[in-house]
Structures are given as structure tokens and as C-alpha cells.
Amino acid sequence: MSRQLLGGLVLPLILAACGAVTPQNPGPEVPSSSLVDPGADSGVTGVRTCSTGTGAAVPECQTEFCAPGTLAIVANAAPGLRCTGFGGAATCQGNADYQAFEYKDDNLYLYLSFKPAIASGYSDAAFKANFDYLWLNVYFPQANTDHTTFFSQTAALRGLSSLVSFSYTSGRLQGRLHIPIKRVDQLVNSTNSACIADDIAGRCYCSYPAETDATIDFDLAVQPQ
What we know:
Layout: E1 34-36, E2 49-51, E3 54-55, E4 65-67, E5 70-75, E6 82-84, E7 99-104, E8 108-114, H1 124-130, E9 131-139, E10 148-153, E11 157-158, E12 165-169, E13 172-189, E14 196-197, E15 200-201, E16 203-221
Parallel strand pairs: 5-16
Antiparallel strand pairs: 1-5, 2-4, 3-16, 6-7, 7-8, 8-9, 9-10, 9-11, 10-13, 12-13, 13-16, 14-15
């Protein structure tokens, strides 16, 4: 089983029907981060991509969604990065083959995985030497309704070369990523008989094209060992 399956989300959002995975619920605590959409004034990359969805034959997929051309997310809210382990266990003692941390707010879910040696002590050199991969979900809460969620999930991004910058100082991990978003998915919870995915009734998905240049900056306190 991929360790990406062990990450958490505010909702168990993604099924194979939309080409991703199904992480587990991370719990109720959802701090806030800031989100900036410069919009069309940013030039070519600021042009929004608007369309209705494709996927399940439900009215929600006829919603017009406009993916922003540029998107900037700054994640620095308390409590920051929390240790997570197999099945979502909150442990900072490491596992047999990895140590993971997660962060979540209204706009972002971030999962960072390190080699288990990181449990021996935190330092800038240790975090860099033991970094394995990260993956994340970008959310579009401004488009949500009480029964739909818009999001985009990355694949696993391996190695420090996947980040523009990465460092640990004064108990905080800081980094920047540039992520091209080519598709946004909509999770629909509905009693419509056409809303079914992977034999699960009441949950289905729509996909929307996107040409979004996303920048994610994080500056997050790390849960003490």
C-alpha cells in the first residue's frame, strides 16, 4: 500500500475515478491560511479557464467553474506541521521506514515524508538529508457548496529538486513550490441515482480543465519530538 494512502484530508476526497488516491480523514482542526488570486491582471498566466464539468451525469457537473490563471497560497497557521504515522497515528517517534508530517487548512493539505532517521534529531541538515517526498491538495473553497468540494491533488513530488527552496530554522520548516495545475476535480455528495463512483453510491466526481500556475509558500512550526 502506498504511503500516500495514509495522508489525511478534510474529506476522503479522491477515488480512482478521478485518477488519484483516497487518503484518510485528518481530524477536525482546520486553521486558516491566506490565498491570493492575482487574476487576469497578471498577463497570460492570469487568464482564467472556465468550463462546465465532465464526469458523472448529475446537475452539479453542469456548474461553470473558472480555474484561476495564477494562484498563491501562504501556509503559516498554527499548529503547523503535525506528526502522522501508519493509519494517521500522531507519533513523532518514527516508523519502520518513514516519518511523516501533515498540515491542513481551508486552502491546502500538505503531506511531507522523511526517512526514519529524522526521528534522531531535527536540524536543517537532517531534514534535507532525510527528505523523501511530499504531495499536496490545493482547494478552491470559494467554489464549494454545502455538498461539493473543488480540489486538485498532485502526485508524489520526490527529492529536494521538486522544491524551489527548503530549510529548517528555529523550529520551523520553510519552503516554496511551483505547481502547474492542469485539472480541478469536484467531489459531489448527492442522492441522485447517477452519483456513484467505485460502487459507492452518493459520491461522484466531475473534472474541469485548468491552466493554473500555483505557488505555495509554507513557514510552519514542526511538532516537537
